[in-house]
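re: the backbone from monday

yeah here it is again, tokenized this time
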């Protein structure tokens, strides 16, 4: 099967992705952070493979398989998470998943995992006068 091969680069790291040929690079590009560049590329081994069989999409990363994704939208979201994960692991930069507000000229940072209430806490503090 012919596939589309792409390279995503940002934050001092890159990852190569293979995807079904009917997925346009613009669809993939729209799902990743704007600081991450995307280009067609077949140089080097591919680390992430988005495949489709029996009408469902599956994401392969090493020996792990993620999915099934029943819609293209969900498959692209899963692939985006994979791209960000690999680039984050390879980047020389440190990333922090957090919410933050300004209180009396100082930053207050609330690190935490997804869906732990950081955004709700920040919104509540902003409603009470924080910046």
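seq for it, each position gets an aa:
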């Amino acid at each position: 099967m012919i596939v589309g091969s792409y390279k995503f680069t940002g934050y001092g790291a890159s990852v190569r992705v293979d995807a079904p040929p009917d997925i346009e690079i613009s669809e993939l590009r729209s799902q990743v952070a704007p600081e991450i560049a995307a280009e067609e590329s077949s140089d080097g081994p591919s680390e992430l493979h988005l495949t489709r069989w029996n009408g469902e999409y599956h994401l392969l990363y090493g020996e792990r398989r993620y999915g099934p994704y029943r819609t293209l939208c969900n498959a692209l979201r899963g692939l985006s998470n994979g791209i960000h994960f690999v680039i984050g692991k390879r980047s020389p930069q440190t990333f922090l998943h957090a919410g933050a507000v300004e209180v009396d000229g100082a930053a207050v940072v609330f690190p935490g995992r997804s869906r732990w209430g950081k955004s709700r806490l920040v919104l509540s503090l902003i409603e009470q006068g924080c910046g």
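The helical segments are 25-29, 72-90, 118-127. The chain has a mean pLDDT of 90.
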